[in-house]
Design goal:
heterodimer; A: 121 residues; alpha+beta; Folate-binding fold; 3 helices; 27% helix; B: alpha+beta; Ubiquitin-like (UB roll); FAD/NAD(P)-binding domain; 50 strands; 23% helix
């Protein structure tokens, strides 16, 4: 039973929470470029690392607020919890955030790259 | 005086009590254990073994006992598989031996012993696999032959169990010397401490020894004094009779406390759920047996147990003892037995000549010691009579010319000590093999825990005390940054020579391996030959070995057998133990009752039930109930002697003929406010909510991102930025979570506030051609004319002064008003409307009639017509999917080919025989063939008798159903019949909806 620090309520037993899987996945924008494959990846594939991982949790039997958590999936050590909309601050959190394999879909990443390149020009 | 009680032994307990073992009346002392009392009465044979039904006796003194399992009868509280070492004697205790018939001595099952060659390791898998379904026949007999005690033949556990939550700074597991010292060190720190021990008093092994002195006081007495001191401290909580059985994540510890000893306590056991800032593991050590031929015969005991029984209870199971050891500790037993007046025939020591203070003491008494010898065989039928001692060569070969036969009735065995690393391993910690002490010791650890003393592999008393003090000081420093004052303890204990000789190098000689009566795991009857056989058959991984031979399983979880099993495998494979590894320890440490886990969450308290405010009326009017999630809903209201079908038919007919009223308060209701509510609803629902005006209602379907129907319901615009959403009864909680998740995580920029108001409103659904008249007669102040209050609109108003929100929406296909009132008025309003409806023949109807009414109209129920793999297109609801919206949840998935092509579609079914009702869930086929395979087209989702259509009706999901309307389908039933029918449009009554619009 994990002892989880809700950013709004403080430390509570895991039984009060529900886990919502991988955090920082952004919902792809619906347009013609979005392929079936990319959509299914957003829908069904998530990262399942051995080690550092950022997950969404919700204090379902408490304040009902969602938040993010940096957890080691091997030892269950929790390094950090932070509110939705903000980014991790700890060393472990930053590392996990960096390794998170798809905060954007491929086409969105290509778009971003283009925008960046255009900016440079 | 019992036969085996040591004369002139001073014991603390003096009250003599009688008890029964297998119907024999025996005497013992209150406060001693059943095991001790059995030993006192010279009862050697206590049980029969699991597989071969071999005679077995007590071998240990604590929770590691694998053999002496008994059934305790205490009125209706019969409990099997209790270790005799853990039962405290009381007047009139009734204990019975297990796994034997007709009785313990002449056990029929023991003939299995002669067939042991035929039932080797894994014999279930080998012998009973033919013919392919033969297991069904064999299982009955095998279950009868194998196994331990029988569960009590009562249906309800009469015991009472409770759960307690506790938060502490430091939890100490084990009250032996290291735990006590640690607790004593912490006591002055003001930290909140809990110390738990499985025995009836703290002290651990100290209670079993007579040669250890602390501050010049006998250790046993010191433990008592220290306990008393700790008991008086407010910051120390002592739990005795407490089995710390689980070490979970983040220092969450579960403890089962036995409370039966508590006078005037009605609780049988307590489950402690403790969250500790630091955990101190001080579980100590368990002595290992040595594996040799006949080592399971009653009379062969662990050396420390023999000593413990003598020191604590003054009992010894024999008069002529032999001690067999590979270490110094067993010499302490020799001294104790000598003092007790027991004849010691000799000491057999595996080691070559060694010397120590302890040894010289024993030698000086004149006890014969055979160094470099082994005990090669134990002879006897029901108990030890003689032993065979042989000389070992330096390489460990038995010299067969040197065999000596010696008379003996007690063999005290010591194969070294195993640290109890169970909880450490449960905490996630990694173990390391120590080749010096031949043990696994804690190494890398994950949690906030400290392991001290014996279970850390520290054997020496003095070192244990120093280690406990040092490590405890670090905890205090960590937690409150305080230095503790020195704890001074002077320890006087026997000085050991630490040399060991592995019990295994000599056993590599072939003749021992051949012998199949050398037991490794007593409880599961696993012999050396079983382990070797498993290895020969390729089960060389320790995890495989465990599962194939059951080594280390059972109620004792291999406390005495694990290391010996590993050593045999290591010798066999010629690999070092670290290369073989060990199995992972899992909870529970000792068996825990299921009743304890359940606690008070049983029977009526198992799960909450939810009742509507109108429930008292349903009860009074003898409604039959249906469970919908936690809700109890009125199912139907039988009148006089009506059965279900007649009652439902009457309710259905009357609703369409006159009017009916349904308690729909269980519908999920969610209040949505905020200036972005419309935007939000546009994302949640498939249809367009941009133009909805206050006072309008709209039906909506919500999808999962995979495009499948998740829930449906009517949402009403109350005011400009205020919506009242309804969900299905079962879906209300998940829809609320769904809305919250999206609004908080994906669209936090939207201004939406979401609150569940399910229980704030009572909902009365008034339906039928006379609904309008009834409502106006009830004193409703709203103009109910079709012009002022048309279908799919909403009005605020009052009925007889009571505030109501009325929604003109319909789930029956009739003119229908869903009257919402603050829940406290629900019952009153229900009665008031029923009263004014009396002259219009208004009758209440239950959920079953509701189902029939909606099925007649072909209205779906989410969860009945859908199962998470049904899209709105499958349901023929293309009209509800907005073409204009850029995005909504699930939109993209509706474009994927697998969601569009070759789908099952919602259709109606009319059976050829109109009286025949197809069972719900029945599969449909296109052709009737004489043999499989037959392609399945789909299945029936709803099926009823419709009194309004005067025939049976059904809804079904059929592959390509909409294009097959008019075609024949077949439904094979379980009893071999085939129901035939034809596909129709899913609407059986008033297809144009004239009644619904209620003009």
């Amino acid at each position: 039973m994990l002892n989880i620090e809700c950013p709004y309520c403080g430390f509570r037993d895991e039984i009060e929470f529900s886990c919502g899987g991988e955090a920082h996945i952004s919902r792809p924008e619906l347009n013609d470029k979005l392929s079936d494959k990319e959509w299914s990846e957003y829908l069904y594939s998530s990262y399942n690392p051995k080690g550092l991982f950022i997950e969404r949790w919700v204090h379902s039997a408490g304040c009902r607020q969602w938040f993010n958590m940096v957890r080691n999936t091997v030892t269950n050590e929790i390094y950090e919890v932070y509110k939705i909309g903000s980014l991790p601050k700890t060393k472990e959190g930053l590392l996990a955030f960096k390794n998170n394999w798809r905060r954007k879909t491929k086409s969105e990443l290509i778009d971003l790259k283009k925008k960046k390149n255009n900016g440079k020009k | 005086m019992e036969k085996n009680r040591i004369k002139n032994f001073s014991i603390d307990f003096r009250k003599k009590v009688f008890f029964y073992f297998d119907n024999k009346k025996l005497y013992g002392f209150e406060g001693e254990t059943l095991a001790s009392a059995l030993i006192a009465n010279n009862i050697k044979l206590v049980g029969r073994s699991f597989k071969y039904h071999r005679p077995r006796g007590i071998i240990a003194i604590g929770s590691e006992e694998p053999n002496a399992l008994v059934t305790i009868n205490k009125g209706d509280k019969t409990e099997p598989n209790i270790q005799a070492t853990k039962v405290h004697l009381y007047q009139g205790l009734i204990a019975k031996s297990q796994n034997c018939w007709p009785n313990l001595k002449y056990d029929f099952g023991s003939i299995l012993s002669f067939f042991s060659k035929l039932i080797p390791a894994g014999f279930y898998y080998k012998t009973f696999m033919w013919p392919p379904n033969g297991w069904k026949t064999y299982e009955h007999f095998i279950r009868k032959m194998a196994g331990l005690g029988k569960a009590a033949e009562i249906h309800k556990d009469p015991n009472r169990y409770e759960h307690v939550h506790s938060h502490v700074d430091v939890l100490i597991v084990g009250g032996g010397i290291s735990g006590l010292v640690s607790c004593l060190t912490l006591a002055n720190s003001n930290l909140n401490i809990m110390i738990a021990d499985e025995n009836e008093e703290l002290g651990g092994n100290l209670n079993y020894e007579n040669d250890v002195f602390i501050n010049s006081v006998a250790a046993k007495k010191w433990a008592k004094q220290t306990t008393k001191k700790l008991e008086n401290l407010e910051n120390v909580k002592i739990l005795t009779h407490s089995n710390v059985f689980g070490y979970h994540d983040h220092n969450f510890i579960t403890i089962s406390e036995n409370c039966e000893h508590e006078v005037s306590n009605k609780i049988t056991q307590r489950l402690w759920k403790v969250r500790a800032k630091r955990v101190v593991l001080a579980q100590g050590l368990i002595e290992r047996p040595i594996v040799f031929s006949g080592n399971d015969l009653p009379g062969v005991m662990l050396s420390s147990a023999v000593r413990g029984y003598a020191n604590k209870y003054g009992v010894v199971l024999g008069k002529k003892a032999i001690i067999f050891t590979n270490n110094d500790d067993a010499y302490r037993t020799a001294l104790v037995l000598y003092k007790a007046g027991i004849k010691i025939q000799c000491i057999v020591d595996l080691r070559e000549q060694v010397s120590s203070k302890l040894l010289s003491k024993v030698q000086n008494i004149g006890i014969e010691i055979f160094f470099g010898h082994t005990l090669s065989k134990v002879i006897g039928r029901y108990c030890v009579k003689k032993v065979e001692v042989s000389k070992l060569s330096k390489e460990g070969k038995i010299n067969s010319n040197s065999k000596k036969i010696i008379n003996a009735d007690l063999v005290a065995v010591s194969g070294g000590w195993t640290p109890s690393v169970n909880l450490f391993s449960q905490s996630g910690g990694k173990l390391k093999w120590d080749s010096q002490s031949l043990n696994f010791k804690p190494s890398f650890h994950f949690q906030n825990e400290v392991t001290i003393g014996g279970c850390n592999g520290t054997f020496d008393y003095e070192k244990t005390v120093l280690e406990s003090i040092d490590k405890t000081k670090v905890i205090v420093k960590d937690l409150i940054n305080k230095n503790l004052r020195e704890t001074n303890l002077k320890i006087d204990s026997p000085k050991f020579n630490k040399s060991l000789r592995s019990t295994w190098f000599f056993n590599s000689s072939k003749d021992i391996f051949k012998n199949d009566k050398a037991f490794v795991d007593f409880q599961n009857d696993v012999t050396v030959s079983d382990v070797l056989l498993a290895s020969n058959e390729g089960y060389n991984s320790v995890e495989h070995l465990k599962r194939y031979t059951t080594l280390g399983m059972g109620t004792d979880q291999g406390k005495t057998s694990n290391i010996n099993g590993l050593e045999i495998l290591s010798v066999k494979l010629n690999k070092a133990i670290p290369e073989i590894g060990t199995t992972t320890f899992r909870m529970p440490y000792s068996p825990v009752r299921l009743g304890l886990i359940g606690g008070r969450d049983i029977s009526d308290l198992f799960d909450p039930i939810r009742l509507t405010k109108i429930d008292p009326w349903h009860r009074l009017n003898k409604a039959k109930y249906e469970n919908v999630g936690q809700w109890m809903r009125a199912w139907y209201y039988p009148q006089d002697n009506e059965n279900m079908q007649t009652a439902v038919n009457r309710e259905v007919l009357n609703t369409r003929l006159n009017a009916g009223i349904l308690d729909a308060s269980t519908l999920g209701k969610i209040d949505i406010k905020g200036k972005d509510s419309r935007k939000f609803l546009n994302m949640i629902y498939t249809n367009d909510w941009s133009l909805i005006k206050p006072g309008q209602c709209k039906y909506g379907i919500m999808l999962n991102e995979d495009g499948m129907v998740m829930d449906d319901g009517v949402t009403t615009c109350i005011e400009n930025n205020h919506f009242h959403m309804t969900t299905t009864t079962g879906g209300s909680a998940s829809v609320l979570s769904w809305l919250e998740e999206w609004s908080q995580t994906e669209w936090p920029h939207l201004d939406v506030n979401i609150t569940s108001v399910t229980e704030n409103w009572s909902v009365l659904s008034l339906s039928g051609p006379k609904a309008r008249e009834i409502l106006s007669q009830s004193g409703c102040d709203i103009d109910l004319s079709n012009k002022n209050f048309p279908f799919m609109t909403f009005k605020n108003g009052k009925i007889g002064g009571i505030p109501v929100r009325i929604f003109r929406i319909s789930f029956t296909g009739e003119l229908s008003y869903e009257i919402n009132t603050p829940s406290r008025y629900g019952l009153y309003l229900w009665q008031k409307i029923l009263k004014s409806g009396g002259k219009f023949n208004l009758m209440p109807y239950g959920t079953e009639a509701m189902h029939v009414l909606r099925a007649e109209k072909g209205f779906i129920i989410v969860g009945q017509e859908t199962d998470g793999s049904v899209s709105p297109l499958d349901l023929g609801m293309d009209w509800i999917i907005s073409k204009n919206k850029k995005d909504f949840i699930g939109k993209r998935s509706l474009k994927i080919s697998s969601t569009i092509k070759n789908r099952k579609e919602l259709v109606g079914i009319l059976t050829d025989n109109s009286e025949q009702i197809i069972p719900e869930g029945a599969h449909s086929i296109e052709d009737v063939k004489s043999s499989p395979p037959v392609e399945m087209l789909g299945h029936v989702t709803s099926s009823y008798y419709s009194p309004n259509c005067n025939r049976s009706i059904a809804l079904a999901l059929i592959k390509g159903g909409r294009s097959k309307i008019g075609q024949k389908v077949f439904f094979p039933t379980l009893d071999g019949d085939i129901i035939t029918g034809k596909l129709v449009k899913p609407n059986f009554f008033d297809p144009n909806g004239d009644r619904l619009n209620g003009i």
